[in-house]
Structures are given as structure tokens and as C-alpha cells.
């Protein structure tokens, strides 16, 4: 029998924390709870979860700082932000730091559960199969699906789990124009209601990490989406 997926809920509001614990336990999760930053870091050190719900406003530091810290330590657990902030700037900041999803309060526990399940599916490599040797190559770009590494021009490129899945999808369709809705469905496996800022932010992050003065490989097709191709000579 498979063990249940573990979710760490980091939320300082006791009512919301208890609600999440009940709903997620009912959905089959093994739930860990933390009400502040030190408790969250203790849980992560002792038993890393399969997925994490992280409130932005926390005593002893905000959720953005927590995410930045754990990503700097190499922790790749998928993170869903839970917050009362609905500004685009906050959402963009969360994605830029390596967050995977964002839900604003008040929220539906059914929706949060569905999003967490989608994050776990994505983190387990359901975005698609790689080449026979587990490596996708294009130009001087190389993605090793088995080792979960990316290299360009022989140099290692550090990507978040979502950035890795996005690049994997584009590398699986070189030369094709992929629409934003296709990317959302394939990479996020969840309907974001046409919120293109999600795709735009991750593509921007991916370009910044891959290019570094090199010729760009990810190109915008205005009004449609993105294409992985060599620059026109």
C-alpha cells in the first residue's frame, strides 16, 4: 500500500490552519502544520513534504523570505502561496522566487486540494517523456530528465522545478509555436483561467537564466505564444 502524500501547511491563523488540516486529511494527505517560520524550517529539515502551502504573512518573516531561503538550500518541494494579497506584483515576486502556484483568501479548500494534487503530479515528471537516453538536446542546450539537470554551452543552469518542466515542454516541441493555453495545460496541468502572467513570468525567468549574453532560443510569437528555435541568420 502506498503511503499518503505529505503536505506542510505554514499558516499563522489557527482557524485557517485547522480548516486546511481537516480538509487535506479528508482528501488523503498526511498533514504537517506550522504556525511560524522556525516551525516550518524544523519540519523541512526533519521530514521534507511532497508539497507545501505557504502563507505570505507570517510572524518572524514573510513567506517570500522562507521560499527564498529553502530554494537557496536546494529544497525543490512544490510551493503554493496562500495569501490575502492579490496584487500582480506580489504574485510575480512569488513566481520569480520559485513558487509554483498562488491562491488568494478567501479560498475554496476544494480548489486548494486540486491545485496541490496537480503540483504533486507535475513534480513527479508527468510533463512528458524525454528522449531514449533521458536527454533532450537543441542547439547548445541539454536537458537530462533522469538527473534533472540542464546545461547550456556545457555550463550548468539552475532551474526551479516549474522552470524545468516548462523547458522540458518547449524542448519536446522545437520549432513549433506553443500557445499560452497549451503551455498552461501541459506544464501546470490546471486551468488558471487564462491568467497569462503565470506563463509570461516563467518564460522571462527561463530566458534570463538560459541566455546570459548568448543567442536567445525562446522566442515570443506576438498574440500567440512562444517557440523554441534558433535565431534567424
Model description:
This protein has 233 residues and is of the alpha/beta class. It has two domains: 6-123, 3-Layer(aba) Sandwich (Rossmann fold); 135-228, Arc Repressor Mutant, subunit A, CATH 1.10.10. The protein contains eight helices and twelve strands. The protein has helices at residues 14-26, 37-46, 63-72, 88-96, 109-123, 161-171, 180-188, 197-211; strands at residues 6-10, 30-34, 51-55, 79-83, 101-104, 135-138, 141-144, 149-152, 155-156, 177-179, 218-221, 225-228. The strands form three sheets. The protein has a five-stranded parallel sheet, with helices on both faces. The protein has a four-stranded antiparallel sheet with strand order 6-7-8-9, covered by helices on one side. It is globular.
Overall, the morphology is: globular
Number of strands: 12
Strand content: 15-25%
Helix-strand pattern: EHEHEHEHEHEEEEHEHHEE
Averaged pLDDT, please?
83
- Main β-sheet, spatial strand arrangement: 2-1-3-4-5
Summed up, the domain count is 2
Oligomerization: single chain
- Supply the CATH architecture of the largest domain: 3-Layer(aba) Sandwich
The low-confidence runs, each spanning 5 or more residues with pLDDT under 50, are: 126-130
Count of individual helical segments = 8
At the first level of CATH, what is the class of the largest domain? Answer: Alpha Beta
Distance from N terminus to C terminus (CA atoms, Å) equals 56 Å
Class by SSE composition: alpha/beta
The major sheet is characterized as: 5 strands, parallel
Radius of gyration: 18 Å
Amino acid at each position: 500500500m502506498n503511503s499518503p502524500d505529505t503536505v506542510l501547511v505554514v499558516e499563522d491563523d489557527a482557524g485557517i490552519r485547522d480548516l486546511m488540516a481537516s480538509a487535506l486529511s479528508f482528501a488523503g494527505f498526511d498533514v504537517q502544520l506550522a504556525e511560524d517560520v522556525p516551525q516550518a524550517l524544523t519540519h523541512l529539515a526533519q521530514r521534507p513534504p511532497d508539497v507545501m502551502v505557504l502563507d505570505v504573512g507570517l510572524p518572524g518573516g514573510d513567506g517570500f523570505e522562507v521560499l527564498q531561503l529553502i530554494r537557496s538550500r536546494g529544497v525543490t518541494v512544490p510551493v503554493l502561496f496562500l495569501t490575502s494579497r492579490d496584487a500582480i506584483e506580489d504574485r510575480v515576486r512569488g513566481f520569480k522566487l520559485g513558487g509554483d502556484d498562488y491562491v488568494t483568501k478567501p479560498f475554496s479548500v476544494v480548489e486548494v486540494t486540486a491545485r496541490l494534487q496537480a503540483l504533486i503530479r507535475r513534480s513527479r515528471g508527468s510533463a512528458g517523456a524525454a528522449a531514449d537516453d533521458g536527454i533532450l538536446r537543441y542547439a547548445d542546450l541539454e536537458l537530462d530528465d533522469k538527473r534533472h539537470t540542464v546545461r547550456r554551452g556545457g555550463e550548468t543552469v539552475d532551474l526551479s522545478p516549474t522552470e524545468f518542466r516548462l523547458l522540458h515542454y518547449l524542448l519536446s516541441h522545437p520549432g513549433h509555436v506553443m500557445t499560452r493555453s497549451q503551455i498552461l495545460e501541459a506544464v501546470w496541468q490546471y486551468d488558471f483561467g487564462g491568467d497569462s502572467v503565470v506563463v509570461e513570468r516563467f518564460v522571462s525567468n527561463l530566458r534570463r537564466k538560459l541566455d546570459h549574453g548568448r543567442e536567445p532560443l525562446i522566442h515570443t510569437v506576438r498574440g500567440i505564444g512562444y517557440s523554441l528555435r534558433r535565431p534567424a541568420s
